[in-house]
Fold:
Amino acid sequence: MIDILMDKFLTIGLEHFLILSGTLFFIGLFAVLAKKNVIAVLMGIEIMFTSVNINLVAFNKYTAAEALLTGHVFAIFVIALAAAEVAVGLALIISIYRQRTSTDVQDFDWLKW
Amino acid sequence: MTMAVMFYIIAFVTLGSALMMVISKNIFHSALLMLISFIGVAAVYILLHADFLAAVQVLVYAGAITVFIVFGIMFTMKGEPRKTNPFSQNAIPAAVLILLFIVINAVTVIKTVWPFSNIAPPETTVKAIADLMLTKYVVGFEVTAVLLLAAMVGAIVIVKGVKKSS
Structure:
């Protein structure tokens, strides 16, 4: 029993990468839910994007190798989307900061009624 | 064995710097810890035999996105730097929820039986990625290019505003 557990622990397989990327995703989600500064929220979203990419590449290597490198291509698309997202997000933050002089998410309440 | 040691070191650095990014009270330290986390993810790509993606990760995330975020911090920082990144009032429920999610995720991954395939990974990935991207996924490639252009124009318009012409 102990031998099998040690073997599982020491031979790195798909499960290790999935648990790593899932934990990284939830740490990013924690930043999104629990931080006050809107730039910290944006950083949490970036961490979530990267962790999803680890998932795509790990699945491509271990369970879908016959599909060539489709996972890598989709990971590149996700990276391009993340770059576009951070550009537009920071533009929005700076534009809001000019009117409210604040980066606290609690102050962004125009759409509340 | 060496693979296991390397994996656990890289996982510790990546997850630890991501967690310290959330906990840190100074937002500038948060940005630098996020950079370390991104470089750790690039090392994970190398463990997964994805050399091109590791290079792209360092270029785009560790290079461009971190610089963007630091620009944003510099534009909007005011007051004492040590108090720039506080927790909001729902930090404790969020922490409980996230711990629950992490445990559920780990248990689900371990319990599931995955359909493994036994094909050796290719030696270099750049040529295969280029082949796929310019044949099978050429539409997605073009749409991504248009999206990047639209995001660039949109960011400029949002920050500068539109001048009303008479």
Remarks:
- DSSP finds six helices and no strands in chain B.
- Chain B has one domain: 2-122.
- The mean pLDDT of chain B is 87.
- The two ends of chain B are 72 Å apart (CA to CA).
